């Protein structure tokens, strides 16, 4: 059991191996900071299957991040995926140690909400696959929270 615990702590970066029998702990500031890094945008580039950022995530992207839904303590990404690819995405995010949920969920830091759909469509914006602009604007109209981003998108894309 001790070997498993040490292996887990080493893989997560909480311990550093100095020699065969000696380990050092990293400081708590570094450990917590690593938990709160934004990794999804870079990691998603490695995916072999299609996806589409949707909802508040699409509003962020189309508004050139004039609206940002995330902070260090809570950072959700909303993604539509094809129903047939649910298993792929679960394995993908597990292998990258990114918390993910289907439909709804929440945790501290960065996490992904997967929304399986029968038919997936997307456009590319700045290297990311995202819902179409008209769908994103329709979503932004549905909630006053996005009013600033909505005005930004209207001015930019007319």
**Which structural category do the helix and sheet elements fall into?**
alpha/beta
Mean pLDDT: 86
Please mark out the parts with pLDDT under 50 across 5 or more consecutive residues, or reply none. none
Helix-strand string: HEEHHEHEHEEEEHH
* Major sheet characteristics: 4 strands, mixed
Tally of extended strands?
A: 8
Large-scale geometry = elongated
Query: Helix segment count?
Result: 7
Spatial sequence of strands, sheet with the most strands? 3-4-6-5
Walkthrough of the structure:
The protein has helices spanning 2-11, 28-35, 40-43, 55-62, 86-95, 133-141, 147-157, and strands at residues 15-17, 23-25, 52-53, 74-82, 100-102, 109-117, 123-125, 128-130. With 158 residues, the chain is α/β, with parallel strands linked by helices. Strands 3-4-6-5 form a 4-stranded mixed β-sheet. A two-stranded antiparallel sheet has the order 1-2. The longest helix is centred in the last third of the chain and has 11 residues, at 147-157. The protein is elongated. The termini are far apart. The mean pLDDT is 86.
